[in-house]
Recover the amino acids of this structure.
């Protein structure tokens, strides 16, 4: 954990800003800053993302509850006197995987030292066997992330379309609805694919908040996938060739539960998933993210991440 003297402190370079640890009561304010910052970034990049924080809150609230309950570090920067939330940063820790889940500063307050101070507290140097960031393509943020010892490995793209009930590959794999009894099998699959698993608490959240499926072939677990109103993913397959069947099943379930659009967060090194989804008429979103890590890890040719792309 970071030093206790940081419990509440003034930012040296910006004495009008006060830092403190986040609490669950801060979640909605953090959500508003995230949406405002992403809308500003996409506008500056010429592909404005139309989003309303209040309208999106019901979908995001369960995710923020998860992040609030299990954050390794969570820091807020507030304006001294007014209490305005200027920015925040948060990290998650899963065994040796230490991930910066969020770092957002309100537009108009950026490039003034606040982001650097938040990053130092939420993602301290030397912590984690693998240090991980799912980052936007904001070059100002990327320059900070390289200083934390991480390197860009590959881009991640959202592949989306309206789900169809007749997506193919119907009978190739057995799909079994995941329950809490399946947590060990789900964790073993995730470790086999990306070297780490997200832990019992996060996997329990996925099983309870989304439809989860354990995929079997000849009785043996070969993959898993999740879909729900809060988002899609993660998806993992021991053999990358099983991904089309898994993706098609998830798409059919998305249509069955009434989703108007389905989006997969696909590492662009995952050639099988990319070619399959493109062949099925999915479109690539113009807003890319990047996976940065302190060392190479995992087999991302058979993995699709958590959606929305806040954490892996």
């Amino acid at each position: 954990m970071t030093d206790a003297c940081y419990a509440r402190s003034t930012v040296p370079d910006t004495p009008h800003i006060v830092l403190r640890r986040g609490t669950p009561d801060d979640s909605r304010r953090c959500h508003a800053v995230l949406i405002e910052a992403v809308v500003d970034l996409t506008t500056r990049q010429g592909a404005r993302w139309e989003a309303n924080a209040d309208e999106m809150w019901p979908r995001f609230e369960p995710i923020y509850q998860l992040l609030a309950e299990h954050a390794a570090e969570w820091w807020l920067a507030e304006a001294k006197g007014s209490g305005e939330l200027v920015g925040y940063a948060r990290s998650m820790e899963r065994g040796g995987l230490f991930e910066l889940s969020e770092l957002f500063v309100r537009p108009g307050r950026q490039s003034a030292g606040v982001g650097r101070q938040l990053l130092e507290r939420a993602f301290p140097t030397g912590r984690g066997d693998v240090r991980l960031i799912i980052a936007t393509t904001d070059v100002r943020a990327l320059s900070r992330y390289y200083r934390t010892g991480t390197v860009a490995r590959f881009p991640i793209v959202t592949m989306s379309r309206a789900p169809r009930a007749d997506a193919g590959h119907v009978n190739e794999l057995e799909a079994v609805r995941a329950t809490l009894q399946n947590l060990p099998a789900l964790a073993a699959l995730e470790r086999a694919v990306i070297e780490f698993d997200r832990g019992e608490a996060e996997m329990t959240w996925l099983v309870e908040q989304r439809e989860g499926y354990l995929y079997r072939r000849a009785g043996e677990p070969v993959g898993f996938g999740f879909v729900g109103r809060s988002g899609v993913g993660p998806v993992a397959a021991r053999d990358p060739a099983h991904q089309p069947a898994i993706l098609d099943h998830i798409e059919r379930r998305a249509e069955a539960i009434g989703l108007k659009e389905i989006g997969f967060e696909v590492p662009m090194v995952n050639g099988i998933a990319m070619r399959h989804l493109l062949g099925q008429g999915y479109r690539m979103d113009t807003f890319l993210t990047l996976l940065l890590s302190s060392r190479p890890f995992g087999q991302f040719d058979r993995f699709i991440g958590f959606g929305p792309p806040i954490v892996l």
Observations:
- Residues 1-7 have pLDDT under 50 and may be disordered.
- The radius of gyration is 19 Å.
- Residues 158-285+297-304 form a domain with the Aminopeptidase fold (CATH 3.40.630.90).
- The helical segments are 27-44, 53-70, 114-122, 139-147, 183-194, 199-209, 243-256, 271-279.
